[in-house]
Amino acid sequence: MNRRHFCLSLAALSGLPKLGFALTPAATVPQTALIGAAWRGPNAGDTYQAGVLAADWDTKKLAIRYELPLPTRPHGLLAEADGGLLVIGVRPGTWMLRCDGNGKIMQQISLSNEGSGNSLNGHAVLAQTADVIYTTETETKTGRGKIGVLDRLSLRKLDEWESHGIDPHQLVLDQNGHLIVANGGVPRTASDKKFDLHRMDSSLVKLDGKTGRLLQRWQLDDKRLSMRHLAWSDSPMDGKRYLGIAMQAEHDDPLKRLAAPILAVLDGEVLSVPTRANDGVVGYAGDITAAYNGGFVLSSNQAGLAQLWQAGVPDQLTPVVELQEAYALTSWSGPKPGGGVLVSTAPGLVRWHPTAKPLFLAWPKPMALDNHWVLLNEA
């Protein structure tokens, strides 16, 4: 671990009390956390794995509860009610895998076995009615974005809707059970190679959660900003609910990528870019999660940086963790008033919270995490 970079995250923390934060005794912090994650070995070509990591805050140790090999690269993970995981392959992958809370594989399906010509784009979400799962997909022959509607129990495809864009990536539900989908807008070949970026058409859309009908569509002025990852955050200060959209720049000009913003925010009905602050490297945010006071933390793995955005200071991004390969994020409640984040980095897990001391836990073995992980429970 680069001690200087970790100290920088402590320095960022020391500057936050001016926003009204105060340190809380460590005794109030939950002592364990179970985290669903996907990773591979440290070398390119190593087998991908998914499983559950157990973080013991008291002993400062990480352990692998279980792990299982995967066919190809995974991406998003969906926590299930029984403590299990739904792991979703990413383009050009077509597989989806479900395991129980002990790591036993319960189901594994492939879209290709159902005669579908689609590839999965790495994300899924459970419907408000809890009877179906929605997935983001691409029709490989045409490049059209699709939303798969799958039976929750069997994972059999029941329906398929238009995403009203191309390259649909993450999707979330709003309070009415409708889908909000980030269409990344990047044309790709069947083998996942980008091409014709001048044709990019990124958009954020709202679809009826029962019929797939297009209800609303938003776009940014800069067509080379690909909207990809999504997170809701509720603000106790103003009662608003914000949708944060993590973006990646696809400009041909390196200087434009260097200056590209990485965050867009949907505030009610208005989509905007609240700050031009970015990662200082390539304009790339790999993950986003809810954080303190209706804010978000965004990770930029190529910059080794996780940054906090808050609605109260919308023009700023505040570094909270600076370590190589800061990547997967998940919200962590910690001591009240909540708002913490668990960040995966190259050397291990960093626990950050605005009112508790940061903590670092080394990986139990050499491993490189993918973009996302999910908190299953804490006690």
From TrEMBL:
Keywords assigned: Signal
Domain of life (superkingdom): Bacteria
Signal peptide: 1-22
Name of the protein this chain belongs to: DUF1513 domain-containing protein
